[in-house]
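cache lookup: miss for this entity combination. No prior model stored, computing from scratch. Input as submitted by user K.M.:
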Amino acid sequence: MKKILPPDVTDKQFDRVLAAFREVVGDNWVFAEETAELISYRDPYAIVDEAHFRPSASIAPDGVDEIQAILKIANDFNIPLWPVSCGKNLAYGGAAPRLPGSVVLDLKRMNRVLEVNEKFGYALVEPGVSFYDLYNYIQARGIKLWLDVPDPGWGSVVGTTLERGAGYTPYGDHFMRQCGMEVVLADGDVVRTGMGSMPGNNTWQLFKYGFGPYHDGIFTQSNYGVVTKLGVWLMPEPPGYRPYMITLQRDEDIEQAVEVIRPLKVNLVIQNAATIRDLHLVASLNTSRTEYYDGDGPLPDSVRRKIMADQDIGAWNFYSALYGPPKIMDTHLEIIRDSFAQIPGARFFFPEDRKDKNDVLHHRAKTMAGIPTLTEFGLVNWVGGGGHIDFSPVSPTTGEDAIRQFNMVKQRAHEHGFDYMGVFIVGWREMHHIYTLAFDKNDPEKKQRAYRLFDILIREAAAAGYGEYRTHLAFMDQIAATYNWNDNSLARLNNKLKDALDPNGILAPGKQGIWPKHLRDKR
Amino acid sequence: MKKILPPDVTDKQFDRVLAAFREVVGDNWVFAEETAELISYRDPYAIVDEAHFRPSASIAPDGVDEIQAILKIANDFNIPLWPVSCGKNLAYGGAAPRLPGSVVLDLKRMNRVLEVNEKFGYALVEPGVSFYDLYNYIQARGIKLWLDVPDPGWGSVVGTTLERGAGYTPYGDHFMRQCGMEVVLADGDVVRTGMGSMPGNNTWQLFKYGFGPYHDGIFTQSNYGVVTKLGVWLMPEPPGYRPYMITLQRDEDIEQAVEVIRPLKVNLVIQNAATIRDLHLVASLNTSRTEYYDGDGPLPDSVRRKIMADQDIGAWNFYSALYGPPKIMDTHLEIIRDSFAQIPGARFFFPEDRKDKNDVLHHRAKTMAGIPTLTEFGLVNWVGGGGHIDFSPVSPTTGEDAIRQFNMVKQRAHEHGFDYMGVFIVGWREMHHIYTLAFDKNDPEKKQRAYRLFDILIREAAAAGYGEYRTHLAFMDQIAATYNWNDNSLARLNNKLKDALDPNGILAPGKQGIWPKHLRDKR
């Protein structure tokens, strides 16, 4: 494959840049040849041409000083940098940069757990700290705090928070629980947000907002700075914990279920970020579609019914948990059981009711207690070839919206020959609907079909008022363009901030559709 | 008193500006003479020379179009504008501008309740909507939602949220419950944040973050835009509610009390933003110091004991409430009573235990249920002359920090001849310690003493690592300067954003210590 360079940079210039980079971090931490290391920064499930999101090189600094030196070089030579923490969010592009030829600024070596405070319930970590790292740190010290983990657990605590990802405990909204940042700006200036900018302060990880403008939000899903430290609140180990699941028999039961869930969630009777998972998603952890069916196109209903019977699961499966003193759990449980009992055919299970030790409830029991796992990767085996990208529209928590979204996505998926495979994650007043579009990444025709499907889904969702909260590299521009109220005033604001904070446009060009001036005008 | 003009603007130029303003909003909504209207925009409890924070004029637009027209004029003529919603936060300067001669941009006419949604629990309001307005709107329609109100309730819902104020229900952190904004930028461009920038979206008030950078925080405690619409989440009326108070006998009991409170709060057994109020603050609502004592200097202990006995209150008084189904309230109550029982002399009261209908618990019972009142203004009568400003450091929730802060502030207050009068508002992992510095606003010598005291308090707090979350106009620069880590990198970031979003520096110069370029360099 042809060598890829940053835009408007010659081979010779790039050699000088690499030499300068090596002086900063040493020869071992700059990757510019076609080695396994550099290949690891490519989009693992490339839905478009594999060259499209390829980096020219990567560099792995260890510390703020080295980042400042790298930024200086990048500013001098106009080298686009693509910062990643652990780069493990594979369904959204992994560590690959939006702009081909960017240099990946890989922060994995900055993996120190700087503090875990049991009294107040927080951690201060660097970007390379994975959920596993933090979990192991806490376990080794017998600290009575729980994490909130995404599935899977190898991702970065910082990265997940900056991308505003979700977990499944009562602390499921990661950004809401974030408290204090250290950010290196494009010009190398280092800022601590909130109380952190008072020297010797004692509340950097205790009080989110500080004095004056509250900045943290503009460093999430953005390309305005490189976050090098981040505080996260951790949940005290509750005095009791009881995970459970409720199965629903029919596709259309999602409508009634969400109407049941909304008041329970707004009133915090459902305490955690609960999920409603469809048949395929649940089944995919223990089986694959080829075990049941070798035809093309969506699974026939008869096969779906067989899977439901074999695995004793529903068309939809609600996973949640009780947390707290036994009396409080009992009270919540009674209300929840009574509420779901209105739905004909709904069945309630505790883990002890699920004999198979591979049952998904046994897995979710860990996830909803903040224990990192990699089990969720079973889903990549549902179809052969292991590719998938996630379509993630935000939905009001109503039955009407849930069934409408489900039908919209399912119909288009079926038209394009894909299964529906999805989950609704229940936030406080909205749901993240995640449709996992699984495809064979070695089949160019299927990839093209998947791309066309994704494109249609974005457009139809936007026309109906649903916007995505996050996306794969390939669709960032398209989704950003759906947030176009008042003739794109949000984009104008984003661009003003970009030009002020990164005038040379070296940081993550194109991330979330935000381009620096010199590339913006070309587009 | 001499007429005040904006800096570097002649009388003649200003007349042209006023004429242009009148063309936009009509003659009735521009105030430039020494009328009662214009005087109402002055600092009500001026701690420095009364001219210091005087506006040159005020203008009250009704709608985004008029605001855009005003911004155009202000940009053309370099007129500083000081936006206020209701301008009722008297202890921090009321509606008065930081820069003398600024024109107050009074948004009180924009007082529409645009939507209250009972199903999801939110309201969308304009800046002129007071807590009373929203409460009355909800009551008139029998909507089962509760507000979260500050004391007092005449303030603006939008203004309080933008200043990141606190209330006393489980929704006490107003900014955390804010969802969606419409902002007019200095150049007249109008942005909707989060999902609001997708046309026809259905989740603007349901999902806070949208796609790409999350901007809302930079429009709080800032001068980067004029917020014209704001969404706030409202709490569903709980199935049960029981307010209570616990009295503590000795000053030093604050230490043990906060150690009791921290785990209860982090675990949300204490569900609301509870408060610990000192003797004077509680007593001030029903009596005044002159009723008990006519000497100067702090109240002698014997008098304090008499007040405690007369009013059946403690040296400290903890006010909180139970919310939820009876079984959950009972469970929480048992844990809370057991925990406080460790403190010798602690006494527990429900409202029915407090016979006097003017008892503070009866008042707090309203506030903690989100019912707006003005009762809290009793505190201005504690000393004659009714002036007060609030000193508001953020503190870790530890007994050690509580007693240390209390002693620091009390000692300096006594040295300067003032009583300690304060409250600790218990947030999730920190406390807002609010010291109400009450002074006779008609006594220049006492005002000077109060100023000196405040100055010392800021410096001593900063030296010990405590930063203020908010302040009166007179101390914005000084407090901003305590957030000076890395040679003032936060100020550099604030200035970059200011120059990008408001290059002519017309919006609220000096707010929170952020000055536009042309005034910054002079300082």
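stored under new cache key. Chain B touches chain A through 94 residues (CB under 8 Å).
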